[in-house]
Amino acid sequence: MAARAKRGELEVVWRGSPSFGACADVLAHNYFTGNYGPPDAGDFFFEFRYDWKTIAQPIVDDDSGHNNVKQKVDLFVRTIEEWSKAYPGRDVLMLMGNDFTYTSAMSWFRNLDRLIHYVNKDGRINLLYSTPSKYVEAKKAHTQEPFALKGDDFFPYADLEHAYWTGYFTTRATKKHYTRVMASYLQAVRQAQAYAHLYGMTTEQYAGGPVVGSIEGGDLDALDEAVALLQHHDAITGTEKQAVVGDYVRRLYNGWTRAAPVMAHSLLRLMFGK
Fold it and tell me: What are the CA-CA distances from residue 222 to residues 34, 218, 258, 269 (Å)?
């Protein structure tokens, strides 16, 4: 990544399919810090929570004697100028926030609004709220030189020396299997329940649509929520701690025990009309 940054190639066009060729090209972006979030947690991490050790000073623009607008603007502009050398074109993407942030959105947006206002007033760069689609459009419009082309795979990926992101493909295989079985079971129960509700309905009842809800003694909510929870990237991959794995498995099991009566009732109704 450091070598790419020196060459100004932290953004490349990735041609991942030799057979599809250019029609399957993807603009691939490497974030300058190697992670995501503000450029400097000590200056632009506007998450004011009591349990965070590193808290940025807010942007103060009054006459209280603590006015720090010039320092904040100068640091931000220097940061953008440094980052811009690592990317083709004149547009730079900067992400604000991180995991578990925006618990107090007001503090973030109040300071971001001030930062945008004073950086643009300074005039050296233009700062704005944006979206991924607008960013890509800007790169296409403002980038004259061609992007570097990458044709090989991104894996195995490493963000530190001897720190390769490959183990999670095979770790905690039992939990991965259990999640897959429960996801399949959930879909089977949903289908059986839907058919059971349709079975024996009059024309008038059918016109009103199938009634898919709980069955006496069970429901699908717990299993639905558990299967959905296990799709999180720190859940299905197995990168969580063992105590968390235990909690995930418990949720899946509890969901199964509540869904089983729904399956039993649905099958009885389909087979025997009960």
Answer: 37, 10, 7, 23
Cα–Cα distance, 73 to 111 (Å, whole number): 12
pLDDT in tens, 38-88: 886 568 888 766 555 556 788 999 988 899 999 999 999 999 999 999 999
Question: How far is residue 102's CA from residue 111's CA, in Å, rounded to a whole number?
Answer: 12
Residue 212's pLDDT is 46
CA distance 122 to 111: 16
What angle, rounded to 10 degrees, do the helices at 69-84 and 105-122 form?
Answer: 80
CA 155 to chain centroid, in Å, comes to 19
In this structure, which amino acid lies at residue 136?
V
Whole-prediction pTM: 0.70
Residue 189 burial (CB < 10 Å; 0-12/13-18/19+)?
Answer: buried
Beta bridge pairs of residue 12:
28, 148
Q: Which amino acid is at 218?
A: G
Is 159 in a helix, a strand, or coil? strand
* Cβ contacts of 172 within 8 Å, gap of 6 or more: 238, 245
